[in-house]
Amino acid sequence: MSFLFSLLLLQGAPVAAPHAMPGEETVAPYAVDDRNAGAAPFVGDGMAKAFHGQDGIRRIVDNMVEFSFADAVIGEIFANQDKVRLKRTLFEQFCYILNAGCTYTGRDMASAHKDMGIQKADMNRLVEVLQRAMTAEGVDFQAQNRFLSKLAPMRRAVLQK
Ligand code: HEM
């Protein structure tokens, strides 16, 4: 790391999209806040352990995103969206909510899903895809259901009005 760059970091100089990974498309600026994740985290480390920590959460999210893009029902909603960003932000969101040691830097749920035309059937399908990914990781059903209950109230923000 160059001296100048280290100095900038130390001074907390603003950097464009500091959380973005290489390969991500740029998005319109927004205020970063853990509350954008849409749910308060679980207390304690039980849920993080049930999901096998950050490694397990990453495997679940990667599978969920790949299944969603390839899915016959909801695949077309994901077509042309930024898969690199979605994998990162979804991982952060799940990791934050599961209290596995992350902060969430993505957009709030209403902004992220605005004008996508998402219907109830799409939501149900996504839940099935997530269940498949959690089961593939060996997450027990009680922990799966506790997590799904946390996500359930976000339906209102995601579904097309
Ligand atoms: C409770 C349910 C859901 C949660 C927790 C969730 C979570 C997220 C998160 C964290 C992001 C990324 C935000 C960002 O880029 O800053 C996102 C984006 C996205 N979501 Fe969801 N989502 C949900 C439901 C759905 C459903 C039902 C669909 C479609 C079937 C969907 C399709 C998408 C797409 C296509 C994007 C990419 C948007 C873009 O790149 O501009 N989501 N979602």
TrEMBL record:
Gene3D superfamilies associated with the record: Globins (1.10.490.10)
InterPro entries noted in UniProt: Globin-like_sf, Globin/Proto, Hemoglobin_trunc
Protein name: Group 1 truncated hemoglobin
Keyword field: Heme, Iron, Metal-binding, Signal, Transport
Superkingdom of this protein's organism: Bacteria
SUPFAM superfamilies the record matches: Globin-like
Signal sequence range: 1-16
Pfam families (alphabetical): Bac_globin (PF01152)
Record flagged with keyword Heme: yes
Taxonomic lineage of the native organism: Bacteria, Pseudomonadati, Pseudomonadota, Alphaproteobacteria, Sphingomonadales
